[in-house]
UniProtKB/TrEMBL annotation:
GO terms for cellular component: early endosome; endosome membrane; Golgi apparatus; plasma membrane; synaptic vesicle. Pfam families: CBS, Voltage_CLC. PROSITE patterns: CBS (PS51371). It comes from the Eukaryota. CDD domains: CBS_pair_voltage-gated_CLC_euk_bac (cd04591), ClC_3_like (cd03684). The gene is Clcn4. This is Chloride channel protein. The lineage of its organism: Eukaryota, Metazoa, Chordata, Craniata, Vertebrata. Gene3D superfamilies: 3.10.580.20, 3.90.1280.20, Clc chloride channel (1.10.3080.10). The chain crosses the membrane at residues 68-92, 153-175, 195-215, 227-243, 255-279, 332-356, 368-385, 441-461, 468-487, 515-540. Belongs to the chloride channel (TC 2.A.49) family. GO terms for molecular function: antiporter activity; ATP binding; voltage-gated chloride channel activity.
């Protein structure tokens, strides 16, 4: 028999795995990462750097660079995300106006920029200047009349179709992952799922370009959700430059959480709201260190966007407003009513949109994504053009609805009948009776509301970048403004009613319709996404008014309560389930009285569990087992008779280890013994060299007993981010529970199709 002493000469061959080999510790596409293992590897790496830093000055400098690399990555993410957001805003502004006309002095100027630079612009006609010409003026020298209207109408539709076709073609050909909002997938990736290419360079480039095109086309979608995806692509790109993040999927996800915060920061000009959004809505694992770094990334991104100043108003957002009137307790009732409306709209939207997306997935409709985009764009443009509130970009619409009617406002919504004897300061205009412009605006807004509600259901989920924040806010802002005008007129004509008597005297500025629009926008966005804290913070950062936090909180909480009464899922969770991503939502409660033994595999009547033994299988046996099964890993036991658990070996690492051993170690052949123990087994003389694979063995796999309640198992999977958990009794292996098994079981308990969990 050959003992360990006789094999010392070949020790360097057997132990070659003590040095790491390429691709070890990486994961395959559509697989879940092992959070515990990633954390352990990072701790080992950090311990190694700390011990080496005491050896020399150079090693100490390297340890400092390693410590600072996280902040450097955050700085780079903030700079790039802010720059891209600024470029997108400027490009959208120009291309949206391009549908209606062109600037003769400089074609790259938007309508507003064109008239800013003109010396012939007056304040009353600030939207009209000779340098800006509509297409009818340029082509047939007519600005009024039926022929000019028809030509402008036709070219508006053509530009919209052109932008939409170009966007869907680019997505289809170059980056299929650039479609949609991106937030459901970001949530899934942050929970530990691998989707290769989803945060790649091509996706970043195509999403940035097509986002400009689709928003400019006038479709009922926003750029805010996709900006989170764009920022996460930036985060993924910069983390790949530093080995600390590129070689550790757990650390990479800390960077992506901070990048999501930077994305919301530039989307809404709300750095604090961005951090809270990442914490409340997107992130799965959010340690305190990530909170600080998210704050820094959001700050840098907001500062960069402010430096670019894309809206020319020295603000981070288009719809920044300031109100001059406080709110009153009696107004809480309409605010809560808007919250109820937001909750009902959220429920309606989620159910209808998911039904339509499911139909798209399961019928022939899904085979023609380009045709679907073209048809929806054509319908949107044809219906939107005649109504001035749907013709303009959704951001401009929200901006107008949020606005307080000052003395200098020329909007239809501010067409009130003025008292000729009024001698009040400009900022404090009393409530006045509505003029004909307000009444016609109410009709147009009512039609715009119905149109937005219906068209958004069909638009979200198409094969183009599409955000949901802005369309949801638009629906709420339209409803809120209409309610606000109604309350304002009621207070003006019936100021002697008991509800108005105490706080609304004749000639006072009591009701601000713009505030109702803002509360409605928050309510509808909350109803769709189920956000609460981050939503309120984002909204008050948008408006700069701390005074209005209570109305916003009341509306956000009410909309969440109402929407939750019909179903707990927000739109992003609903899309995660629709796509079958393996996402264990922390918010879901598991209350069923089942045990680990009910869920583990193998079940009764199934083939026994595929296992490896610690020192009695050959390389050929292991390769056959890998070839005949598709499991992600295998438990290692002492022997098939005893089934005493030793550890767990990952499939990918077994394949890589054997492949590397065959290339680098001459003595390894098909009948070489594979062993996972510290010392080699005793072998007959002239046996081929055994192969030591102890390095890839996880010696402390997570185990539970067969009588552990599933409630505890689900909690363990959520909080520790496990891939799999082994079931034992008195140290003897009984079975295995994977994340997919847990999701299947939860679906089964909720009377859903357990096979809807598509991925591993």
């Amino acid at each position: 028999m050959v003992n360990a002493g006789d094999m010392n000469g070949s020790g360097n061959l057997m132990d070659f795995l003590d040095e790491p080999f390429p691709d070890v510790g990486t994961y395959e596409d559509f697989h879940t990462i092992d959070w515990l293992r990633e954390k352990s590897r990072d701790t080992d790496r950090h311990r190694k750097i700390t011990s080496k830093s005491k050896e020399s000055i150079w090693e100490f400098i390297k340890s400092l660079l390693d410590a600072w690399s996280g902040w450097v990555v955050m700085l780079l993410i903030g700079l790039l995300a802010g720059t891209l957001a600024g470029v997108i805003d400027l490009a959208v502004d120009w291309m949206t106006d391009l549908k209606e006309g062109v600037c003769l002095s400089a074609f790259w100027y938007s309508h507003e920029q064109c008239c800013w630079t003109s010396n012939e612009t007056t304040f009353d006609d600030r939207d009209k200047c000779p340098q800006w010409q509509k297409w009818s003026e340029l082509l047939v020298s007519q600005s009024e009349g039926a022929s000019a209207y028809i030509l402008n109408y036709f070219l508006y539709i053509m530009w919209a179709l052109c932008f939409a076709f170009l966007a869907v073609s680019l997505v289809r050909v170059f980056a299929p992952y650039a479609c949609g909002s991106g937030i459901p997938e970001i949530k899934t990736i942050l929970s530990g799922f691998i989707i290769r290419g989803y945060l790649g360079k091509w996706t970043l480039l195509i999403k940035t370009v097509t986002l400009v095109l689709v928003v400019s086309s006038g479709l009922s979608l926003g750029k805010e959700g996709p900006l989170v995806h764009v920022a996460c692509c930036c985060g993924n790109f910069f983390s790949s430059l530093f080995s600390k993040y590129s070689k550790n999927e757990g650390k990479r996800r800390e960077v992506l959480s901070a990048a999501a915060a930077a994305g919301v920061s530039v989307a809404f000009g709300a750095p604090i709201g961005g951090v809270l959004f990442s914490l409340e809505e997107v992130s799965y694992y959010f340690p305190l260190k990530t909170l600080w770094r998210s704050f820094f990334a959001a700050l840098v991104a907001a500062f960069t966007l402010r430096s670019i100043n894309p809206f020319g108003n020295s603000r981070l957002v288009l719809f920044y407003v300031e109100y001059h009137t406080p709110w009153y307790m009696a107004e809480l009732f309409p605010f809560i009513l808007l919250g109820v409306f937001g909750g009902l709209w959220g429920t309606l939207f989620i159910r209808c949109n998911i039904a339509w997306c499911r139909r798209r997935k399961t019928t022939r409709l899904g085979k023609y994504p380009v045709l679907e985009v073209i048809v929806i764009t054509a319908i949107t443009a044809i219906i939107a053009y005649p109504n001035p509130y749907t013709r303009r970009s959704t951001s401009e619409l929200i901006s107008e609805l949020f606005n307080d009617c000052g003395a200098l406002e020329s909007s239809q919504l501010c067409d009130y009948i003025n008292d000729p004897n009024m001698t009040r300061p400009v900022d404090d205009i009393p409530d006045r009776p509505a003029g004909p412009g307000v009444y016609s605006a109410m009709w147009q807004l009512a039609l715009a509301l119905v149109f937005k509600i219906v068209i958004t259901i069909f638009t979200f989920g198409m094969k183009i970048p599409s955000g949901l924040f802005i369309p949801s806010m638009a629906v709420g802002a339209i409803a809120g403004r209409m309610v606000g005008i109604g309350v304002e007129q009621l207070a003006y004509h019936h100021h002697d009613w008991i509800i108005f008597r105490n706080w609304c005297r004749p000639g006072a500025d009591c009701v601000t319709p713009g505030l109702y629009a803002m509360v409605g926008a928050a309510a509808c966005l909350g109803g769709v996404t189920r956000m609460t804290v981050s939503l309120v913070v984002i909204m008050f950062e948008l408006t700069g008014g701390l005074e209005y936090i209570v109305p916003l909180m009341a509306a956000a909480v009410t909309s969440k309560w109402v929407a939750d009464a019909f179903g707990k899922e927000g739109i992003y969770e609903a899309h995660i389930h629709l796509n079958g991503y393996p996402f264990l939502d922390v918010k879901d409660e598991f209350t069923h009285r089942t045990l680990a033994t009910d869920v583990m595999r193998p079940r009764r009547g199934e083939a026994p569990l595929s296992v490896l033994t610690q020192d009695s299988m050959t390389v050929e046996d292991v390769e056959t087992l890998i070839k005949e099964t598709d499991y992600n890993g295998f438990p290692v036991v002492v022997s098939k008779d005893s089934e005493r658990l030793i550890g767990f070996a990952q499939r990918r690492e077994l394949i890589l280890a054997i492949k590397n051993a065959r290339q680098r170690q001459d003595g390894v052949v098909s009948n070489s013994i594979v062993y996972f123990t510290e010392d080699p087994p005793e072998l007959p003389p002239n046996s081929p060299h055994p192969l030591k694979l102890r390095r890839i063995l996880n010696l402390s796999p997570f185990t539970v007993t067969d009588h552990t309640p599933m409630e505890t198992v689900v909690d363990i999977f959520r909080k520790l981010g496990l891939r799999q958990c082994l079931v034992t009794r008195s140290g003897r292996l009984l079975g295995i529970i994977t994340k997919k098994d847990v999701l299947r079981h939860m679906a089964q308990m909720a009377n859903q199709d357990p096979e809807s969990i598509m991925f591993n």
